[in-house]
Amino acid sequence: MDYTIKRKKYIVYKQKNIYYNEVGSDTKPFVFFNPSIGIATKMEGVFIMANINDVARKAGVGTTTVSRVLNNSPLVSEKTKEKVLEAIRELNYYPSTFARGLAGFSTYTIGLIMDNTMDKVYANPFIYEVFRGIEKSIYEGGYNLMLLGINTHQNNKLAVENVLQAKLLDGLILPAELIMSSYFDKIKSYKLPLVSIGKLENNRNISNVDIDNFMGGYIATKYLYERGYKKIYFSGIDPVKMFANDRYMGYKKFMQEKSLDIITLDNSLDNVDSIICLDNINSYKILQECKRLNKKIPEDIGIITFDNYPLAEYLDPPITNVEIDLYELGICAGNEILRLVKQPVYDVKDIRIPASINVRSSTR
């Protein structure tokens, strides 16, 4: 029996429990397996989708073999695999996530909670790049991605809670700030595999993915030192924020290794020859102060900042920055949640993405 599945409107005739689809002069039968339906009828607009049984028949194999090919099993020979893949292409077959879920007690869906209270949150390149990486990882891993706002409500209840109660997710990715807040109380009781975007205080036995901020501070200081700067100041110390404290501790570690003084900045900037800025806003303020004091950049003072967005490359001069690969962070977060949902033993990981230096004209 020949099958041709096309995305177009069909006219279907039923006679003697066989459906005939008529497309122009091309008429090919589809067996209808329910003999209990009565007299012949004509229906328009019926679209007959191929299923795994259709693929198996066309390829001349069993449904188990088709399933193994779909799951990239090594138990299938290359010749048989190619035969099955050819049948899949011809029939335009796509495995049903819902059917897979019923068979394996899985929804094949990963949730991603994002803070949608921030102004223009989805236009923020930080968030967009992380999201882009997560999306690529999840979909290439054969799962779907459900985006959830932390304050989105449905029927007077948080949408996140409705989704969790309905057991629509196999795993969840969320910001570290939510895990370290009372909001997490609404989530932890569901005992889903979790991945945190951001380092966690006291770990909490949850896999977390973050930039290696400690090494970022270390390599920023090392870069300045290797270019002849010795009086290096760290601007923007904030011990309350973990990422800021880690960057500062990386700076401090290198300074101690080289027996250099940890500098306290004076108002004239005469006691420093270089400055590491916590972020772009901080670097903008430092640059303005240097110009006010007629300090030449990079001759008198070298400046390096963390992150590129939103200002570093547009300032005068453009600022050398510690480059952070947020897309790779998203990829790693997606890979980690897929690892957790697929394995029977729940072991957590602390994953750190290395930083690099993007050299511009604010350093010599």
Spell out the blueprint of helices and strands:
Blueprint: E1 11-15, E2 18-23, E3 26-31, E4 41-44, H1 52-59, H2 63-70, H3 78-91, H4 97-104, E5 109-114, H5 125-140, E6 144-149, E7 153-154, E8 157-158, H6 159-165, E9 171-175, H7 176-179, H8 185-188, E10 194-197, E11 207-211, H9 213-226, E12 232-235, H10 242-257, E13 274-277, H11 280-292, E14 302-306, E15 320-323, H12 326-342, E16 350-353, E17 356-358
Parallel strand pairs: 5-6, 5-9, 9-10, 10-11, 11-16, 12-13, 13-14, 14-15
Antiparallel strand pairs: 1-2, 1-4, 2-3, 7-8, 15-17
Principal-axis shape: elongated
Assembly category: single chain
The mean pLDDT is: 83
CATH superfamily of the largest domain: Response regulator
Radius of gyration: 29 Å
SSE-based structural type: alpha/beta
The share of residues in helices is: 25-40%
Secondary structure tally, helices: 12
Indicate the proportion of strand residues: 15-25%
The count of DSSP E runs of length 2 or more, i.e. the number of strands, is 17
Q: What characterizes the major β-sheet?
A: 6 strands, parallel
Description of the molecule:
The protein is of the alpha/beta class and 364 residues long. It has two domains: 11-104, lambda repressor-like DNA-binding domains (434 Repressor (Amino-terminal Domain), Orthogonal Bundle); 108-364, Response regulator (Rossmann fold), CATH 3.40.50. It is 35% helix and 21% strand. The strands form four sheets. A six-stranded parallel sheet has the order 6-5-9-10-11-16. A five-stranded mixed sheet has the order 12-13-14-15-17, sandwiched between helices. It is elongated, with a radius of gyration of 29 Å. The N and C termini lie far apart (74 Å).
